[in-house]
């Protein structure tokens, strides 16, 4: 149909999460029709990011600076450290603006099935950050999956000898969750962690 | 949250049709994490398209060559010409692989409301293509909207003096359409254009 260059662009776009072949084609058409306002700005933005992209040597976030903009932000509370599995989790938490501290990205979760061992994750560097001092609380914000929780337990054990408070995200009913539609695991967690009515 | 470069990329992506701020962020994360397999190929594909992008001087299609790959394709039947409003329509028809001929993109539709007059559309160039000869049939494939149909009538009038067969897409029930859910306009069209059962 279209030239190989346009086909290649459609393919590259359709590999993005959330874009299928159909929406990629629509996006390409939009780019072709709005060269000045869509194609060229996107090209420039991509080129700039590609030029400067790197992984933060402190926390493992991806950013265009090192240290990343979170680690470099003096308004961030350096005494609170939130440990997450992936960069996506860091972004999700940061977007919520609820956590004022800094982060540590493990780069995955322990998994016997996928052969992910502690040395494959950024756990040693986390222990070093905690050992270096200046941190009061480590919040374990792993996914509420079996592997996430196994990872959380392992990380907690590795840092239990240091004088930091280790906490983890609460498990229970999601906001708007209807009992009727929730899985048994969530219900069991919510029941087990029930609290007195204030 | 992220650096200005990453924010700019997220914004550029979120302006694509089909991507909101949330999915743009997911897409950016994907690009950042898969630099070699996602970010750089997309950058390259965009750069190549941006370099060569142009509008076909014959039919108005956007492509990286001029004439576009459809006009330049010798396997295409040059005697059939399909007139569409927008490049998106050309692509949709071409994707269906049902039309073996060539195209002509008007670049819009007549609209008193939006102040779009015949001279704002590529109608003169269509008349010239028809006047030049070698065309047997002109298929008017405008949208089944009031403005699309007004445009189709106008175009039909402009080329009626030439020895070409002028046809238009059939209107009626869409495949899978249930009477119960169809609008009255479609039902009226389908009834008016009813055909003997073969």
From TrEMBL, chains A, B:
Presence of the UniProt keyword RNA-binding in the record: no
C4-type zinc finger locations on the chain: 56-71
CDD domains registered for this protein in UniProt: TOPRIM_recR
Supply the alphabetized keyword list. Answer: DNA damage, DNA recombination, DNA repair, Metal-binding, Zinc, Zinc-finger
Domain Toprim, which positions?
Answer: 79-174
Q: Where is the signal peptide?
A: none
Q: Which family does it belong to?
A: Belongs to the RecR family.
NCBIfam families associated with the record: recR (TIGR00615)
- Function as written in the Swiss-Prot or TrEMBL entry: May play a role in DNA repair. It seems to be involved in an RecBC-independent recombinational process of DNA repair. It may act with RecF and RecO.
Protein's name in the database:
Recombination protein RecR
Which organism does this record belong to? Sphingomonas rustica
């Amino acid at each position: 149909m279209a030239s190989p260059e346009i086909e290649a662009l459609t393919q590259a776009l359709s590999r993005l999460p959330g874009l299928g072949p159909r929406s990629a084609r629509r996006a390409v058409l939009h780019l072709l029709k709005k060269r000045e306002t869509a194609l060229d700005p996107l090209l420039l933005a991509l080129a700039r990011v590609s030029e400067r992209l790197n992984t933060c040597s402190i926390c493992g976030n991806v950013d265009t600076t090192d240290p990343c903009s979170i680690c470099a932000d003096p308004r961030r509370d350096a005494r609170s450290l939130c440990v997450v599995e992936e960069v996506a989790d860091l972004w999700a938490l940061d977007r919520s603006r609820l956590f004022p501290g800094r982060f540590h990205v493990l780069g995955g979760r322990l998994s016997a099935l996928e052969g992910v061992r502690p040395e494959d994750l950024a756990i040693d560097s986390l222990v070093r950050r905690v050992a270096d001092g200046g941190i009061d609380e480590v919040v374990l914000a792993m996914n509420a999956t079996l592997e996430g929780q196994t990872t959380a337990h392992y990380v907690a054990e590795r840092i239990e000898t240091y004088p930091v408070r280790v906490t983890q995200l609460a498990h229970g009913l999601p906001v708007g969750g209807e009992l009727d539609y929730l899985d048994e695991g969530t219900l069991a967690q919510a029941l087990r962690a029930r609290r007195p009515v204030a």
